[in-house]
Amino acid sequence: MSKEKQNITGHLREYRDDIKQAIDVMNKGGIILYPTDTIWGIGCDATNEEAVKRVFEIKKRNDAKALITLVDSEAKIEFYVREVPDVAWQLMEVATRPLTIIYDGARNLAPNLLAEDGSAGIRVTHEEFSQNLCMRMRRAIVSTSANISGEPSPKCFADIAPEILEAVDYVCTSRRNETQNPPASNIIKLGLGGEVKVIR
User: What is the pLDDT of residues 100-159, one digit of tens each?
Assistant: First the structure.
């Protein structure tokens, strides 16, 4: 086998191992640090109330501020939202950058992940690593910026504070060397009657 093929095989094995370890940790209620379609995120099983509570504690964040969850495909949204407004599908179809939609009537998520009005922010990720992670986890994954609440969000892995790195149970190895600043997601809140409110 050529050196080039060995390198590709080695990288693929590392990538698969990285995803497997992250899933093993989340399945046991643990917290991970992982690259997403926007910035590095603190994540956990979005259906595990205790794990979600730990994420709030790590960020020193008031749990009245709801967290975003990631899924790997549009089809998964209907499992977590009682009634997806038609406008949501239209918005996702035309979005040119990551789009987080806040839906009324969220379900099948940890109760402490929802806002006081029962809504939840969900984003379909099209970035390879986080998409594969969600797909293999088979559940929504929490995604919140890897910083203490109120402090600047890290632009890349190197910017993440040691306090955050030490607080999580597993730090993913993929995409650590990247230095670009990916765009934050747009955030839109949808009402059951089809009302659209742009948050960001």
Answer: 999 999 999 999 999 999 999 999 999 999 999 999 999 999 999 999 998 988 889 999
Q: Which two tokens stand for residue 27?
A: 């399945």
Residue matched to tokens 């607080």: 167
120-124 and 68-71: which strand pairing? parallel
Indicate the SS3 state at residue 49.
helix
Element (H, E) at 190: strand 186-190
Strand partners, 170: 32
Token pair 């929802």: residue: 114
The region of weakest confidence among 62-66, 119-123, 190-194 is 62-66
Cα 34 to chain centroid, rounded:
8
CA-atom Rg of the chain in angstroms: 17
Q: How far is the C-alpha of 68 from the C-alpha of 113, rounded, in Å?
A: 8
At residue 79, what are phi and psi to the nearest 5 degrees? -75, -30
Three-state secondary-structure class, residue 87: helix
Give CA–CA dist 112/128, Å, rounded.
28
